[in-house]
Amino acid sequence: MEKIEKNLDKIHQDINTLKLAYEPKIIAVSKQQSIESMKLAYNYGQRAFGENYLQEGLTKINELKDLQIEWHFIGPIQSNKCKQIAEHFDWVQTIDRLKIAQRLDQNLINKKLNICIQVNISDEESKSGIMLDDIDTFIKSLDQFENLTIRGLMAIPSNTIDQDILKEEFNRLKLKFDQIQRSRNYFDTLSIGMSADFRLALECGSTMIRVGSNIFGKRNYD
Known about the structure:
Elements: H1 2-17, E1 25-29, H2 35-43, E2 48-51, H3 54-63, E3 70-73, H4 82-88, E4 91-95, H5 98-106, E5 113-119, H6 135-142, E6 148-155, H7 163-181, E7 189-191, H8 198-203, E8 208-211, H9 213-216
Parallel strand pairs: 1-2, 1-8, 2-3, 3-4, 4-5, 5-6, 6-7
Helix pairs in contact: 4-5
């Protein structure tokens, strides 16, 4: 318990030193973490959790159903999983295909789903996400889905420790985010920054960081 508390305190301290004009949201990436660890984080004030794998996420949602948790789906989405994702999660951060958006929308009953568009900011062919130049067209195609609330952009940058490369990618995405926000005032979420780079991401304008190991430590299993 003490370890998770200290880790969360350290993250909040790091954020406070940046003296941001807003309070970024912390998503605790809880994949492959125990229910007990998640409860400890919750009891210390953490309310938003992110899951990458549907079945694992559904198990945790059921076991923690008495807690006021905001659940984020942050993994790749298969078409046959859309119904359960739509029914059980509050946010989906990995929208990059119209087909997936349509199936999520069709399975939402008396409920709205917050979504982020995943952007391939590093232009890697092997990585999921919409290319930067295609975002505007993709957003317009999503407007038809009344049950989806488009909240912003999400990205995973290049797998590098080169701060200049990461900063350039974050800044390009922030520039696009600002452009979209000028015409869509509900567009309020820039989900960039993970355990290794969240400070830099926040300096570049991130409003939401996805942090796993810096909260929970090493995963229980790989």
